[in-house]
Amino acid sequence: MSHARRARVGVIGAVAPLLTAGIACAIVATPVRAQDAGPAVDVTVVGTADDLERARGLVPRLAGGGTHWLRIDKLDPADVLRDRRDGDGAAVRVWVDLTSATRARLYFATRSERFLVRDVDLSGHFDEVDRAALGEVLDSSVGALVANERAGLTRAEAEAVLAHRETPAPPSAIAAPAPVLAASGGEAPAPSRWAVGFFYAGQAQSDGPALDHGPGLTLAVAAFPRWPQVHATGRGPIVFASGQYRLPIHEQTPRVGVALYTIAARAGVECGPLLWSRLRVRLGAGVDFVHVTPESTDHAVTLTSVHWSTSFVASAALRANLVERPHRFWISAVLLADVLPTSVRYDLAVDATTETVFAPWRIRPGLTVELTFF
Asked: What was the pLDDT predicted at 254?
């Protein structure tokens, strides 16, 4: 899951070697049991008691092994640089400074005299995206330090970084407006609660076979404001509404036939993930507006007038995202079934007898391919 929104991580110093994909994957994929846990990790949260509880929920067990949580009101930079080569205490010590609502400052120190200094930009509300970004940085940084004792900054480099942080910026003579980030750089745009999809769906109507198909449009919105990233992560409920135009189908008997085209309207809720991170379930209901045109070349047959009929429809579907581009679009396949509570038939009455021209199924399976932007 990408957490690009508001989670641009600024790494100060030459720390490029520490987070290679191989190290991060190996750490995340390896389970840690209580009896064979690695070196202990001390995490000190700088902030309030509420900040401590929020931080504890991010990563219950860090990659280094057993985790001990502490809280202080103010950070002393000298404590980060304190000599720990005597072997006392945790193998990795972490300070998480949450005194600013818009930026978390993280400091890491090991017994082997290696250090890390990292920043994580926050939204100011400590929402789900903030928690995911901060938890990922905590876990991956500790894991990298445990796996590679040469990762991170030397003591001299860390001292320079901390000294630069403690030096206040000179006052500006003229207040300047905040720079506007170009669209191609800076922070990723905030995830939208809204998504719009374009789809093409086909549906079996009977064993004729009669295939009803056509293009459609879907509009979806995250059900709760605190989950604006639902379209990118696939987590949380979505409320949707859709409309589809289905091309005419023709059913014919020797004497009479009927042409039908449908406008299908649906609305409902989609939830997930289900079993698989890209699989979601969709439940809804709606109405089929069917335009009925009787047809015949037999002049002895009296046709009813062209008219519209309506049918209530319940719908269920499974949607699987086949291609995903975070904060941009997905391509999905939807396996669906519409259920009509009452049967519908189109009949020809001849000399007090009735001949069925077309009798659609009450349960109609279908398949949809959808391109969704968000």
From this structure: 81
Q: What is the DSSP string of 106-140?
A: EEEEETTS-EEEEEEE--SS--HHHHHHHHHHHHH
User: What CATH number labels 194-373?
Assistant: 2.40.160.20
Amino acid at 277: S
Cβ density class 104-137: b for 16+ within 10 Å, e for less = bbbbbbbbebbbbbbbbbbbeebbbbbbbbbbbb
Q: What is the amino acid identity at position 34? A: A
Provide the token pair at 346: 């189109």
Within 296-358, where are the H helices? none
Contacts for 30-39: CB closer than 8 Å, 24+ residues apart = 32/61, 32/63, 32/65, 37/61, 37/65, 37/66, 38/63, 38/64, 38/65, 38/91, 38/146, 39/64, 39/65, 39/90, 39/91, 39/92, 39/146
- Residues of each domain in the chain carrying CATH 2.40.160.20: 194-373
CATH 3.90.950 residue ranges for the chain: 9-166
Which CATH number is correct for 9-166, 3.10.620, 3.40.50, 3.30.70, 3.90.950? 3.90.950
Q: How far apart, in whole angstroms, are the C-alpha atoms of residue 295 and residue 308? A: 15
d(CA 15, CA 200): 48
For 287, other C-beta atoms within 10 Å of its C-beta total 14
Which pTM value belongs to this model?
0.50
Residue type, 259: A
**CA–CA–CA angle 92, 144, 160 (5° rounding):** 70
Instruction: Outline where DSSP puts E strands in 232-362.
Output: 238-252, 257-271, 279-295, 307-325, 329-339, 346-350, 353-358
Strand order in the sheet with 67-72: 9-11, 115-121, 103-110, 92-97, 41-46, 67-72
Amino acid at 307: H
What does pLDDT average to in each consecutive run of 10 residues of the chain (374 residues)?
Answer: 39 36 34 46 88 79 69 85 70 87 88 85 84 85 80 82 64 48 47 86 86 94 65 73 94 85 95 79 95 84 87 94 79 95 82 78 94 88
> Distance between the two ends of the chain, CA-based, in angstroms?
16
How many Å separate Cα 295 from the centre of its chain? 49
- The three-point CA angle 60-64-69 to 5° equals 45
